[in-house]
Amino acid sequence: MPDLxxxxxxxxxxxxxxxxCRTLLEERLIVSANRLAPAISYINSGDEVETAxxxxxxxxxxxxxxxxxxxxxxxxxxxxxxxxVAIPVSHTAPxxxxxxxxxxxx
Length: 106
What we know:
alpha+beta, Alpha-Beta Plaits, 5 strands
């Protein structure tokens, strides 16, 4: 099994998503991030359903760093209860798996 975890999170705006990606890369907690196009989220908040535009991001990291990444995203996030989900990767292209093992270089 590859030593790779995808961490998925949603941000309220593109700027927050961008800043989180850059910070985690600069801190060497992730090997890459994928910011996706804005999505419409549907949230059940008691008696009514709310909708909001949110900005999804996939962060690529190792199993060892996953908890640290989740904690760091939580610290930077403006939501009181941010959606942050870690998804272990069971299979990937061998070249990509090797690339994610390489330490980042300046």
